[in-house]
Request: fold
Amino acid sequence: MSTDHDTIPFDEAVATFDPVLGLETHVELGTNSKMWCSCPTSFGADANTQVCPVCLGLPGSMPVVNGAAVESTIRMGLALNCSIAEWCRFARKNYFYPDMPKDYQISQYDEPLCFDGYLDVTVETDDGPREFRVEIERVHMEEDTGKLTHAGGATGRIHGADYSLVDYNRAGIPLIEIVTKPVVGAGSLAPQVARAYVTELRDLMRALGVSDVRMEEGSLRCDVNVSLAKPGEPWGTRSETKNVNSLRSVERAVHSEIERQAHVLLNGGRVVQETRHFHEDTGRSTSGRSKEQAEDYRYFPEPDLVPVAPSPEWVEELRGTLPENPSAKRARLRAEWGINDHEFQSIVNAGALDLVEETITAGVDQAAARKWWTGELTRVANDREIELVDLGVTPDHIARVEVLMAEGSLSDKLARQVFEGIIAGEGDVDAVVAGRGLAVVSDDSALLEAIDAALAEQPDVVEKIKGGKVQAAGAIVGAVMKATRGQADAAKVRTLLLERLGVEG
Reply:
């Protein structure tokens, strides 16, 4: 009998079976208030401090639709090439969970606000880039649930826990679900297609400004559906791996589930329709619970909310607010900047595309903008495990640093210390320079004094330089740089040193 840990090699699995994907992505909207009430939605607040009778489902409380959430959903649907419903309504999805205060979720069932769209994604292959069109079944509005914390166990899951705590702050936050149609024909590229789709979707939501799409905070979560079938046969039974919370894990979840299901089928077993839990440490999933059918939720129209009927005029007005498509923007910027694929991909991988663009707009040379964002600042962000935008450094900061470097007031080394100070909260560029005393030492008399001191300490080096070994000057330059705490211009120090000794450079 197969277990959750039994697999076959991926290449063997995709040589025997065709994978079929389905991706259900949940996006928490970045509205100031919840979907049905005026409670705030800020992340990280103390447990159960952002709640009211409406989001707690208390008797007599009545929900009211958040207009900003409707507007954001329509913009999302338009960006995904969807049709927008002229009339739709909400439904009650009935099931019991302790993180659902009402014992039902207000969602949309057979009447979504947006439907029949698509998103094109590109996957790199050995034969060059290959484009896939992922068709969108629906984009519908609902509310998020609360958050459960299972305590006392070794795994952090309910099984084996001593008790569970529930935080209702997240309950009622506007949640948009984007459901794809079955994705077929990807073959061995299925894991990469899944990752590319979620990546492109995240970039699109960020460009729209409707969500911060931080997967690590749960504002973007993906349920990964996978089934297998032999070529020409009907699609197999699907499994649903829930709440996968990183781009890498989306790819790994598809990869591992293909291997697991293939092992089950090739050994005469039957794939069970169920939800599964993905484990980051092993890259594998384990069984959760049997998957309900729609009828098990006993959907019926929500009696406390009026239908949503966006006018065609309003929809067209919102269409005019859409930003440039991220894939088109990437192609445009790469051409404008005249850089190769590797250089451009390093910007994308660092999540620095918009920051580099804004820095160039602020007057910085594109090579310098790329150097700072994909070099020193990316290193610091990775060390701290945060996004670049959360460092506290802005494009204007980089522009000011570059001005000071061009004036000769800062060296490259000192500039790094400036950014270190900004990140530490010591103020803007000029405040850090003044507070840390970072201005370049450019006064000739001060530099000559430091040179003379270094020469006096290293007479043997002086003889080498005078004897024609000019490269030995590096030891004196290094001593001067140390004496000035790195605030001297090394090239200028070298010039003054050789002049002092009467040696040709």
About this structure: The domain at 444-501 is CATH 1.10.10.410 (Arc Repressor Mutant, subunit A). The two ends are 79 Å apart (CA to CA). The chain has a mean pLDDT of 87. Residues 181 and 242 are 17 Å apart (CA to CA).
